[in-house]
Amino acid sequence: MMIRSTASFTLLAVVLVLAAGLLPPPAYADRWEVRREVREGIREVNREKREARRELRRCETRKCARREIREGYREVQRERREARREIRRELRDYDDDRYDRDRDRGSDVLKGLAIGAAVIGIATAVSRASRDDD
């Protein structure tokens, strides 16, 4: 009777250790930084558009209006380029972080296997000790 319960305990311990090794690592910020950069880029582009409209309203000559339109387009395009650059940088950083987490996961599996072996060893020692007492 005791052997069956010890075997069940050992089997349960093995299953738990293997399942813990297969589970994904804890969630990180994921793409929060990327989403933040997207929102910031949209905000900056809209700010430049507002500024271009404000400057265009101040113009009284056709020459001034053309200059402000050109400048407005140039500034908006510059902000869009900058936003794209920032988003690409954040995506690259995110991918690098994800790669590092995946690479480090192998050591987590080894730790899980070591802990599992220790649990099995303890369970075996307890079962042998209980058999010796009987």
In short:
The protein is 90% helix and 0% strand. By secondary structure, the chain is mostly helical.
Description:
It is a single chain. The chain is mainly alpha-helical. It has one domain. The chain has three helices and no strands. Helix 1 (2-22) packs antiparallel against helix 3 and helix 2 runs antiparallel to helix 3 (62-133). It is rod-shaped. The model is unreliable at 25-29 (pLDDT under 50).
Number of helices: 3
Poorly predicted sequence stretches spanning 5 or more consecutive residues: 25-29
Oligomeric organization of the protein chains: single chain
Rg estimate, integer Å: 31 Å
* Domains (count): 1
Percentage of residues assigned to helices: over 70%
Average pLDDT confidence is 78
How much strand content do the residues show? Answer: under 5%
Helix and strand run: HHH
Globally, the shape reads rod-shaped
Number of strands: 0
Structural class: mainly alpha
- Measured distance between first and last alpha carbons: 12 Å
Biggest sheet architecture? none
Walk me through the topology:
Blueprint (H helix, E strand, L loop, with lengths): L1 H21 L9 H27 L3 H72 L1
